[in-house]
């Protein structure tokens, strides 16, 4: 029964990801990662007995502990990836702001030169 509930929940999550992708709420760049994650969740839910044996084989007596460990490692990896992406975006915004300021200064200088020529 627990396996059936786990499969239903992971299939629901997979359906949400597909829906978000189709409605363009989730960009293609991230959709693939989430589709793979949701698919892995469905496979893990189907293979719960195998995961129990694997957890015992590596020395973890309680399989949900293994599942939480894998989940935490995945979330940490995802956070690092998002932090790197945010850092790149911050650098791009800084560069764009600086370029905008330079262009704005040039426009102001050209306007002053044009006004100076018109008064002469």
TrEMBL record:
Pfam families reported for this sequence: DUF2304
Transmembrane segments: 6-23, 30-51, 57-80
UniProt superkingdom: Bacteria
UniProtKB keywords: Coiled coil, Membrane, Transmembrane, Transmembrane helix
Keyword Transmembrane helix in record: yes
Coiled coil: 86-113
InterPro entries assigned to the protein according to its UniProt record, in alphabetical order: DUF2304
Name this polypeptide is given: DUF2304 domain-containing protein
Source organism per UniProt: Paenibacillus oenotherae
Upper classification of the organism: Bacteria, Bacillati, Bacillota, Bacilli, Bacillales
